[in-house]
Amino acid sequence: MPAVFLIYAVMSTIAFAVYWLDKQRARRGEWRVSEMTLHAIELLGGWPGAWIAQRVFHHKWRKARYVIVFWSIGLIHALGWIWFLQAPR
Description:
- By secondary structure, the protein is mainly alpha-helical.
- It has one domain (about 1-85).
- It is about 80% helix and about 0% strand.
- Helix 1 (about 1-30) packs across helix 2 and helix 2 crosses helix 3.
- The longest helix has 27 residues, at about 1-30.
- The radius of gyration is 14 Å and the shape is elongated.
- The two termini are about 15 Å apart.
């Protein structure tokens, strides 16, 4: 189980950094990180870091379609944890 928390920490750090990079590129009018890439990082465990980055950088938190997919990913993780924790051992 500690390995899972390490994965969440590493992926959250990556998510935070990629959100920062995307925000910088948006400000400069440069090529952006695709939403699919951001969602893939979130799905792989980076959603907590992405949530923090959304608040810190005020980035990607108003776009309704993006937010719906983001919270769906968070829900998938929550349901996965509920299933895992309730599974008989």
